[in-house]
Structures are given as structure tokens and as C-alpha cells.
Amino acid sequence: MAEWVGIGRRARRCYGFDEIALAPGKSTLNPEEVEISWDFGGKNFPVPILAAAMDGVVDVNFAIEMTKQGGVAVLNLDGVQTRYDNPSEVLDSIAKATPQEATNLIQKVYTTPVKKELVAKRVSEIKKGGGYAAVSCIPQNARSFGPIAQEAGADCFVVQSTVTTKEHIATKYESLDLTKFCKDTKMPVIIGNCVTYDVTLELLETGCSGLLIGVGPGAACTTRGVLGIGVPQVTATIDCANARDIFYQKTGKYIPIITDGGMRRGGDVCKAFACGADAVMIGSAFARTKEAPGRGFHWGMATSHSNLPRGTRIEVGISGTIEQILVGPALVDDGSQNLLGALATSMGCLGAKTIKEMHYAEIIIAPSIQSEGKMFQAMQRVGMAK
221 an active-site residue? Predict the structure, then answer.
């Protein structure tokens, strides 16, 4: 599989969403008769899409509205929602900042310490509004925030960092024992992020309820440029899905994987499921909703790093509601709305009745898939050329 890239050094070719396509199946199905739900933590969710734990995407109200649509939105416990009693003022200032000011402002905003009482308050607010309370923090804070969120009634806890491994070596602080954390936490735990077969196998052994797959593909993330680290999402999802299946064969435990980031439109979402994802996590598409707290802006989770920011603030605009993003009606022609309709239609064309059946769709390498026959779209910057 690997090619020589120099004397004594070989490298494996990996693929992203723009480089592949899905071949139609031998039979087709009525899109209205496919099943797109997924099971997680002993609960069935009609929508196999999670909104990313980013401050420009999810706040309390967004989490409540996402629950009403049948999906899950993850609230960032390391963000402005738990640092400020009135995060709206902070979000206004970030939205009004010039591109030159944005990164420095975000760095300053995130120097204010997290208030633990706000961790409990935000969870309680989501629950009071009838929402599914999924919350996230970095491993260094999980030991502290986990019990607080659990006592407040959180439904799911996400331990998330740029790259997560079962063994983290550190001498200046005590690293989080993921196995112990999963065992002690009385709610489903999702761990992220990873992109390789071996690490996926090791993380599945911790007792987690799900894994996030993806390093650096997000629209507002600059990790790949700053650190040079990442694996394109098609290859990452396929490799990690294979590890999930091997783990299931050995243990009888099926633990879902969630492709996180890099999906701009419905076609990318469909490809992620065909590569083996059980669900997907999306940021930028939801940052464009009227309900999102970012005011039409979106920034990476590591943008606030004091010395080495690995994200940027981007302007995504406001294109519709959460309902329009998920189920339409789509008012734009670029595939960024009615994601569930796109998924159901794709499954119908592939002959896949369920998401698990979609895992067996034929994948082809198709570097011209985005440009073939699209000259006028490219010239006019409409449709797939936006």
C-alpha cells in the first residue's frame, strides 16, 4: 500500500472526501423507507448528527433546539458559556472584531477562568428546557468537571483533545486515566480525537461509549497547517471503523465511531457513513444557523491557545435554521441544507436500508468527481463551485 517517498522511507496514500465517490447499488430503495437513526448509550436517536462542542455553534438554547430535532448538540465546558455569567456580551465582541483583531481577542477572552458553578448551571438549563445535555472538556479538566456535570444531570460526557491516546505521558501534571474515568462516570463517555487503527483499538478498551474520529479537518481548524498532523477523513474513518469491527468480533461490544469534521455538505456526510461512521459531528454547517451563538462566525477550539493557536475565526454567515440544515426545505443549492434528506436519498440510490448497510457501499477513487461536467458552475461560482 505504501509508496517510496525517499531513500528508506515509504508513505501510505490517504484519501479525503473530495477524492472519492460512491457507486450506485444493484438495487434501489424508496428514500422514505430507509432508517437513518443510530443507537448510542442505550438510547436511539432519529438524527445521526451531532453539533460540535464549539462556542460559535452550541449554547444552551441551541442544545435544546437540536434535541427537539432528534439530534445531539455538545456544549463546550471549557468555553465562554462557563467562563462568563453573560456570554452574550463576549460573543458580540468576537463577532465585531476585525480579522486582524480576532485571534488576539479570543486569546484574551479565554484567559478568564472557568466558574465551576456555571458548569452545573448550564447543564441544569439544558435539562430544564427539555434538552439532551451532552457536554465536553479537555482531559485535564475531566476529573473536575465530570462529577459536577453528572450531579447536575448531564446525559453524556465528551473528553476531547486535538489528539487523544490511551497512554498520555506527562511529568508536570497528572494525566487522566481514561479507563478509570469511564468506569467511574455514570453516563456515556465519548473520547476523541483519534485517526488510526491501533489507537482506536486501545481507546475502545477503556470502556467508552463512542469515539470521535478526525484530526484537523474542521473548517476553522489550522492544526494541519500549524503542526503538520492529520489523516484525511476517508482513510481515517475506514481505518477506525475496521478497528471497531475487530473489537466487536473479539468482545461482542459494538461501540460507535463518529466522524468529526471536514464535512461541508450532504455528499460529504453520505461518504462518511459509507466509510464506516455510525454518526457524524459537524461544526461549520450549524454555525450558519440562526440559533447558533456565533452571530455568523465560527472559530476553532484551539484558537484560544495563548502561545500557539491552532484555529482561526471564519465568517460563515447565517443561511437558515437548525431545521433547514437538517430536514429542509433547502433554500441554497450547495448541499449545505437538508442533510438528512441527502442522506436518505443517497441510501436509496445505494440500496442501503440502514446506516450499517451503508457501510458496505462501493467506494471508488474519483479525483474528478467535483469538477467533471461542472464548467458552468465553476465559472459562475454556484452549486458545487461555491
Answer: yes
pLDDT tier at 169 (50, 70, 90 boundaries)?
A: confident
Under CATH, what is the fold of the domain 43-325? TIM Barrel (3.20.20)
Query: What is the structure's pLDDT at 171?
Result: 81
Q: Could you read off the pLDDT of 136-145 as tens digits, one per residue?
A: 999 999 999 9
Q: Which three cell numbers stand for residue 83?
A: 467562563
Query: Regarding beta strands 313-315 and 134-137, do their DSSP bridges make them parallel or antiparallel, or are they unpaired?
Result: unpaired
Residue type, 347: M
Q: Whose CA is closest to 132, among 155, 157, 153, 159?
A: 155
- DSSP state, residue 186: S
Stretch among 173-182, 257-266, 376-385 having the lowest mean pLDDT: 376-385
**Across-strand partners of 209?**
none
Read off φ and ψ for residue 317, nearest 5 degrees. 75, 180
Segments making up each domain of the chain, as ranges? 43-325
Query: Which of 137, 158, 180 has its CA nearest to residue 301?
Result: 137
Q: Hey, is 216 helix, strand or coil?
A: coil
Give CA separation, 150 vs 55, 78, 142, in Å: 21, 16, 11
Is the model's pTM score more than 0.85? yes
Q: What is the pLDDT of residues 17-55, one digit of tens each?
A: 999 999 999 999 999 999 999 999 999 999 999 999 999
Nearest to 178 by CA among 150, 142, 212: 142
For 119, 134, 290, the CA distances from 126, given in Å and listed in that order, are 11, 9, 18
Catalytic residue among 244, 265, 288, 310: 310
The catalytic position among 221, 240, 270, 275 is: 221
Cβ atoms of 118 and 56 within 8 Å: the answer is no
CB atoms within 10 A of CB 88: 12
